[in-house]
Amino acid sequence: MPISRRGFLGCAAGASAAGLTGAAGLGGLFASSSRPQSGCLLVGLGQACPLSESAMGYAAALSSSKIAFRQTSFQSFAFTSARTMILPGAVTVDLNSAARLREHLVNGSNILYESGAAFASPREFGFHKRVIRTVFGLSLHDPVRLWDSADSLKQSPYVDYHWPVVTKVRDFSRVIPVDPADGGTIAWFRDLPVAASQKIGKGTLVYLGSPLGPHLLSGDREASGWLRKFCSSS
Prior knowledge:
The chain is α/β, with parallel strands linked by helices. The protein has a single domain, classed as Rossmann fold, CATH 3.40.50.880. The chain contains six helices and 13 strands. The chain has a nine-stranded mixed β-sheet with strand order 2-1-3-4-13-12-11-7-8, with helices on both faces. A two-stranded antiparallel sheet has the order 5-10. It has a two-stranded antiparallel sheet with strand order 6-9. A hairpin with a 2-residue loop joins strand 11 and strand 12. Helix 3 packs parallel to helix 4.
């Protein structure tokens, strides 16, 4: 049977404890001429996040890495700008929300969109898939289960990141294969591209189809190193 969210967290925590870490037609709806503020903004998504533990993971990792950050709610982020914005465990719920994100990107923000859509219902994922394609130009494929199913892999899966640092992060759950419009793949699971970087206006969207937040919550060294490098390069 598919791994649950709780099971995913348990596997991630166990791996960390055991040392098992290895290696645009909508523009203008929310237009703003102001430049993004410096620093990092962590956006709390509330009920829009099916992987709510991710937010705790990012907050813990940013704090332990001594990276200054502010927190805001999903309802308020349209009115708060930052050079770096992180949306943990996110699922786009409507076109207006995606349009707000795009405006931040156009104005110069770099946004880390960690997708929680692999844990959403098939109907929710289908809508998420259409919105991401329409607004950001990223083509998503159906989630792939990596663990705890009859057709899952029989070995410990790792995601290979090639940007902003070369590293491997263990994943026990599901990944969303993603094809960026310009070929900006930044992470692979075997032959599946599972993370992408897309330049939009003055900013850059980084879409993660493999969640890092639960690994950050468990103290995973490689995941934490990836986040530090992302923040320093944004």
